[in-house]
Amino acid sequence: MRASWVHVTYDFTAPVDKVFEYLADHDNLENVFKGAKIRRLSDGNDGTRNGPGSSRELRIGPLLPFVETTEEVVPNEKIVYRITGGTTPLRHHVGIQLFSSTPSGGTHLDYRIRVASAIPGLGPIVRAGLQKQIADALPGVDRALAS
């Protein structure tokens, strides 16, 4: 099982705190993963809504739903999440979002997702789809944050 990585970078016009807050919130992720149905399952185990331990169920098209759980949150710097449940052919899936300020006062996002599957050829297909989907969605998120 060979892993491949989605890697998307994007510079938002909005400041780091605003972009971080938006992307940390499970309820906003349907705007990033178009066509997915996302349902919040739990709040963070640290007493925050989107902190470590918070989880969401994702349903993409006709596929069976799976659960992603936030593992690490460093406010305005980093979010790490993993698939932790459900039926999915993906294995060892991890998403990492890194946030930093740009010289203009905006936000630089470095977003990586590790994709691997025991099904030959599936990982690269998922990687290519996610790469395009996220890259295409982020300008719309930027416009929404600016309004």
Give the structure's gist in a few sentences.
With 147 residues, the chain is of the alpha+beta class. It has helices at 16-24, 122-146, and strands spanning 4-12, 36-42, 55-60, 66-74, 78-86, 94-101, 107-115. It has one domain: Alpha-D-Glucose-1,6-Bisphosphate, Chain A, domain 4 (2-Layer Sandwich).
Name a few traits of the molecule.
147 residues, 39% strand, 23% helix, single chain, globular, 7 strands, Alpha-D-Glucose-1,6-Bisphosphate, Chain A, domain 4, seven-stranded antiparallel beta sheet, alpha+beta
Characterize the structure shown.
The chain has helices at residues 16-24, 122-146; strands at 4-12, 36-42, 55-60, 66-74, 78-86, 94-101, 107-115. A hairpin with a 5-residue loop joins strand 3 (55-60) and strand 4 (66-74). Strands 1-7-6-5-4-3-2 form a seven-stranded antiparallel beta sheet. The protein contains two helices and seven strands. It has a single domain, classed as Alpha-D-Glucose-1,6-Bisphosphate, Chain A, domain 4. The model has no long low-confidence stretch (mean pLDDT 90).
